[in-house]
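Exercise: predict the structure of this protein bound to IPE.
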Amino acid sequence: MTVKSSREPARAELAKLGEAELLEVIRAQPVPAHVAVIMDGNGRWATRRGLPRVAGHREGVKAARAAVRAADTLGLQYLTLYAFSTENWSRPKQEVSTLMTLLERSIHGELPELMERNVRLRIIGRPNGVPPPVQRGIDEVVRQTERNTGLTLVMAFNYGGRDELIDAFRLVARRVASGELQPEDISEVHVSRALYTKDIPNPDLLIRTSGEMRVSNFLLWQIAYTELWITPTLWPDFGGADLYRAVLEFQGRTRRFGGV
Ligand code: IPE
Ligand code: IPE
Ligand code: MG
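Solution:
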């Protein structure tokens, strides 16, 4: 049985507000510290318009910029964007290389605004496999923004949740092999600290665009108790108001963490 609080209809009405009004409403309540986003649907956005898939990726960059601005304006501490998965290498060569160039160029192009907004860029994922010039370009932005103290923008790039767990197991196994750690003493803390996200809190809210009901190898350990919000909107059409709508709905949820 679903029990609806008397505030639910009001929340549905509020969701129709524009970006500025929504911002005002959600700011009046605690906002999540960490929002993660599976930015999906660029290809479909382009195909529906008779355009090549890469046109959707180009448009997707604009949506990512809007999401960063909205997250910063709202005062989120962490925004994680899933930009390229380990499985995305299986796409046509041309699409992969365009994505690589686009990601590196757009991250670099955003540097002045990231500095202005005091945003710190971090990357999670395996650096090996990424073309060296792309890796160098991204590393440069990470270095330049590392002292910024505002929003932390986490880009999941060449990221796979299973690879992250494998890398964590390797780290923990090394500690056990060296005698520093006993197998029976391994706890959640040891695993969490061995992940790429070791000093980042788990996401409170996970957004997926384009309507797919799956997690696609994203933050498998970290999303154990994350609230999910899935919208049919394709990523290039996702704007700041959509991010705020997700937060509005999050604020109406009851998180139980297995309790009552
Ligand atoms: C998301 O859009 C971007 C990446 C995965 C890099 P897609 O390219 O997956 O778009 P669809 O899902 O095919 O529409
Ligand atoms: C997830 O989207 C990966 C990114 C958004 C980078 P995909 O389009 O790769 O996921 P699937 O293939 O639909 O599961
Ligand atoms: Mg997709």
